Amino acid sequence: MEVAIRRLEPGDEARAAEASALFKSAAASLARATSFLADSRNYIVVAEAGDELAGFLIAYRLARLDREADQLFVYEIEVVPAFRRRRIGTKLMQWVRRTVDEERLMEAFVLTDSGNPAAIGLYGSTGAHVEADTGILFVYPGHAA
């Protein structure tokens, strides 16, 4: 079956809420999906096999003070287990690479950890390189759930 990759846009709120329920195991209200999709800096990209969701990517466009071009932070990528090993993750990351070119961005970047060989393999096979392997993630927890 052919898999189509597309960015969700305003008007796709129901699909965004469906993707949130499937990939995040958390319901997103239509109001929240509307607000998220209304901000052009937010990217939800889905892989669809017919009417079925097969993959999902969330990214955020980040403005730079020191550069004219923005960056794209790929926050999350996921493929439904039944659709894994069918190059859907590759197609999603190829979409990212095309978007960097088409939107004239400085770069796209994604974080993972050394204990995730599937992600390391995906990013390496789609043209990314390790810029630094010494990062440590610090988080300041908030009170919102």
Characterize the structure shown.
The structure is a single chain. The protein is built from 4 helices and 5 strands, in the order βααβββαβα. The mean pLDDT is 93. The protein starts with a strand and ends in a 20-residue tail after the last helix. Strands 1-2-3-4-5 form a 5-stranded mixed sheet, sandwiched between helices. The relative contact order is 0.14. It is an alpha+beta fold. Helix 1 packs across helix 2 (30-38). A hairpin with a 2-residue loop joins strand 2 (42-49) and strand 3.
Poorly predicted residue ranges? none
Cα gyration radius (Å)? 16 Å
What is the total number of structural domains?
Answer: 1
Q: What class do helices, strands and sheet pairing give?
A: alpha+beta
What amount of the residues lies in strands? 25-35%
Please trace the helix and strand order, writing H or E for each element: EHHEEEHEH
Total number of strands: 5
Give a topology summary.
Blueprint: E1 3-7, H1 13-23, H2 30-38, E2 42-49, E3 52-62, E4 71-79, H3 88-102, E5 107-110, H4 117-125
Helix pairs in contact: 1-2
Question: Would you kindly provide a brief summary of this structure?
Answer:
This protein is an alpha+beta fold and 145 residues long. Helices cover 30% and strands 26% of the residues. It has a single domain, classed as Gcn5-related N-acetyltransferase (GNAT) (Aminopeptidase).
Task: List the keywords.
145 residues; alpha+beta; Aminopeptidase; 4 helices; 30% helix; 26% strand
